[in-house]
Specification:
mainly alpha
């Protein structure tokens, strides 16, 4: 990958070659699915990363039988540095129990200091028994992502710290982080 960071959807929209055509194609999905998909594919062929994401999302919403198509579109968007595609592609691999591929993709995001990638990689390490030896690495990832302001990392880190029964200081830090995450979450919800 030539870029040094993954781009969020707002950054990708700012680079969109034809925003009006993208909006038209996306709107068509609800009234004429085949035409909408055809227009999105044409936009994707012309370099629209958002069209790739819309195509992938449409396939993913169609159910597990369409996951291979979703993977194809997400992979193309991921290769064009879409942060959304990175996470969604890794989660599809997790659903398919291909944890090694999910880990590879998420590690690529971590290597570019992507906070959500850190969160999801830590989540993979904590959730799957095959990664039990990586609990400390998960904690480090959550610490780093939390320091970057990632709210879900703060919440998960707080829960992880509260479970460390042998260290009262760590437990208290976990409780404080948890309360901060709750307050921050309410602020975000109120603002939105």
């Amino acid at each position: 990958f030539c870029m040094d960071k993954f781009l969020d959807d707002h950054e990708l929209m700012a680079q969109e070659p034809d925003p009006k055509a993208l909006h038209h194609a996306y709107t068509l999905l609800s009234t004429n699915l085949e035409s909408g998909l055809a227009e999105l594919e044409a936009l994707a062929d012309r370099g629209s990363v958002m069209a790739l994401l819309y195509l992938a999302n449409q396939c993913k919403m169609s159910g597990k039988e369409s996951y291979s198509d979703a993977q194809k579109w997400y992979r193309l968007a991921y290769e064009k540095m879409s942060a959304t595609a990175l996470i969604d592609l890794a989660l599809i691999y997790c659903d398919e129990k291909d944890y090694e591929e999910a880990e590879t993709i998420l590690k690529n995001g971590v290597s570019k200091d992507d906070g959500p990638s850190m969160f999801w990689l830590a989540n993979l390490y904590l959730a799957e028994p095959c990664y039990i030896a990586k609990k400390n690495e998960a904690k480090i990832l959550l610490e780093k992502s939390n320091a970057m302001g990632h709210l879900r990392s703060k919440h998960h880190l707080a829960l992880l710290l509260r479970r460390e029964r042998n260290n009262i200081t760590t437990i208290i830090r976990g409780i404080i982080l948890y309360l901060q995450a709750v307050v921050q979450g309410f602020r975000v919800a109120y603002r939105d």
